[in-house]
């Protein structure tokens, strides 16, 4: 006969739960524990397995696995996502830099970097090492102030927040969060601080998504 509404609800929730957290067998046993009916448990198993296969083919892993992945945890599913630890800052950083010496005056800086030319400029010291970041819109906005700042150093930010090329994406994301910055400079080491590139949080997420899609395509291609 027709299944009752509660039975259909259990089957639907089990399929949805499998898509979110995985574990079709766990969902089946849970449904059996709740209903105590083997026929419904069999239908739940079929629905959960179907849900698991659809999610695996279309997305690669369950929602909970993805959330753990964003936190940098190395866990394995149908699609191994532990490769995030090998996604280093050196691979992700951008090398098309805009740099300025710390000896510049604010007026010289504005002339060299007009509003709209770039968002951020890396400032280097007399030895060519990293000194700070300057936000271009901020220094241009100050030109219209009643008392404009006279020193370029007044606009310095992220002086101590730097990335190293050997850091992985998890460490970079943690530093972005702790520094509350959308971009950080990548330097050779903490002593010489020779500028190698720049990495933005948005670029990190974009490159990460590209690598994720590539890994998923490779897995799907290998199983076909």
From TrEMBL:
Q: Which domain of life is it from?
A: Bacteria
Give the record's keywords alphabetically: Chloride, Ion channel, Ion transport, Membrane, Transmembrane, Transmembrane helix, Transport
Ranges that cross the membrane = 7-32, 38-55
Gene3D superfamilies assigned: CBS-domain, Clc chloride channel
- Keyword Transmembrane attributed: yes
Name residues in a coiled coil.
none
One record GO biological process: monoatomic ion transmembrane transport
**Designated name of the protein:** Chloride channel protein, CIC family
Its source organism is Paracoccus thiocyanatus
Provide the organism lineage as a comma list.
Bacteria, Pseudomonadati, Pseudomonadota, Alphaproteobacteria, Rhodobacterales
